[in-house]
Design brief:
Length: 101
């Protein structure tokens, strides 16, 4: 539990912060939890995506991850959604699928 919290509280800026912020409201725009700044899951989604981009700098963030993370957030608590995203992107998806190289 402390690892995820350390990523969330890290003073380090993710190079993906700007793109993540742009994509937040594109995630499930018709869903009450994600459709505005008042959507209760918007800050959760942002924290999960930024934490992942800091956790795995080789992958970072790219469009499409917000949809995967959002689906996980619908069903799981915040930290479990983060670890689910880690599992999907690092263990299930083909190696290099999301790398920017």
């Amino acid at each position: 539990p402390k690892y995820y919290q350390s990523l969330v509280q890290s003073p380090e800026m993710s190079p993906s912060d700007k793109q993540i912020s742009l994509d937040l409201h594109r995630s499930f725009p018709r869903n009450v939890y994600f459709n505005s700044d008042n959507g209760t899951k918007v800050p959760v989604l942002q924290r999960v995506l930024v934490a992942f981009s800091l956790h795995n700098k080789a992958i970072g963030y790219c469009q499409g991850m917000n949809m995967i993370a959002g689906m996980l957030i619908f069903h799981l608590d915040e930290e479990t959604a983060f670890w689910g995203l880690v599992a999907i992107l690092e263990m299930i998806m083909p190696t290099g699928y999301y790398n920017t190289d």
